[in-house]
Amino acid sequence: MQNLLITGGSGFIGSNFIQYILRDSGFQGRVVNVDNLTYAGNPENLTGIEDAFHNQYIFIRSDIRDLGAIRDIFQEFDIDAVCHFAAESHVDRSIMEPDAFIQTNIVGTFNLLECARIHQGQITLFHHVSTDEVFGSLGETGFFTEATAYSPNSPYSASKAASDHLVRAYFKTYGLPVTISNCSNNYGPYQFPEKLIPLMILNALEGKPLPVYGDGKNIRDWLYVKDHCIAIWEIMRHGRKGETYNIGGRNEMENIRIVEMICDNLDQMIPPEDRSSRRELITFVKDRPGHDRRYAIDCTKISNELGWTPVETFETGICKTIQWYLDHTEWVERVKTGEYQNWIKKQYG
Length: 349
Ligand code: NAD
Ligand code: DAU
Fold this sequence. Notes:
By secondary structure, the protein is of the alpha/beta class. The chain has 13 helices and 13 strands. The structure holds nicotinamide-adenine-dinucleotide and 2'deoxy-thymidine-5'-diphospho-alpha-D-glucose (DAU).
């Protein structure tokens, strides 16, 4: 891998991944980050990278829905590997406005695959980052394995499922060297505060209500974002082509428990002046339509084949995450006020 195209590199996981491979992994090639900077893409997530790695890092504001633009990028930068993060990623938004999910997640992935196919001789890897939500919902027992049938329940997960199928089809039909990863819920630095954990941290700090959907007993399998990045890099270097790998944190938790832990941690770190508990802010609200009850990943395959296991426990990961949001008040402020969007407009029009 000499010229690695990373899509969606200015979002939550993509920016953590770029930080990881440039700062920690020893990767010597060039990273071409293609991101069209939606509300979820924030150049500030990569502050310092352009300066520290000016020979290795290039940012291009471009849209994966634009086949011509992506074709030019493959050509101009001699792309020989792809790690594809770019997506509309928020389930609630997909319920309100599914259109962008179809266009970016399905058509955008198709465009990237087509460009990779055109340059097939030089493409050594197309890695597709996907989600455990493609498998639908579990009952009280059992785990998602790589053999679990797809059964997506939201427009978001259906669009990701479609993109996974396209990637697999390009391997079977054209022999494109692909790998796919299906990961559970991530949390950590730079996550946009529409997702459960950062939303609860920031609302709790401001004394705002903490909206818990339904009875709060839905279960997710939480993974610290750096552990996800390490797993993706392992798959990219050592995974078998044409294979999918499940990635999970072995950290099943009910939503309500997560929110209580955030409240308790914050109460310890910054005791409320009136000695009340932030748990009092918890407010049960109307459930998400089609809300999946439980996700849990069996990550035996990646663990046996590639020796990957998560480093962080939920207890260590959540402390680091809360501390990160406390230490990055300027980032938080610019995201909350939308000021980062003004900066993008000034910079890129
Ligand atoms: P995110 O919403 O934080 O970031 C998405 C990035 O993609 C943003 O920078 C955005 O600007 C960019 N993007 C969106 N549409 C684009 C387009 N048309 N062209 C170019 N760039 C575009 O998402 P995330 O949480 O970092 O997720 C990244 C990937 O990982 C997604 O594919 C998601 O499905 C998958 N995933 C996420 C999680 C999770 O818990 N967050 C778990 C498993 C898998
Ligand atoms: O499982 C992987 C998926 O995890 C990724 O593919 C998605 O991109 C990512 O957004 C995430 O999806 P979820 O829907 O699980 O994440 P979210 O943070 O939106 O919600 C987590 C759980 O918390 C879910 O059961 C809904 C609940 N929730 C969420 C919000 C935002 C609440 O109870 N209240 C809230 O305000």
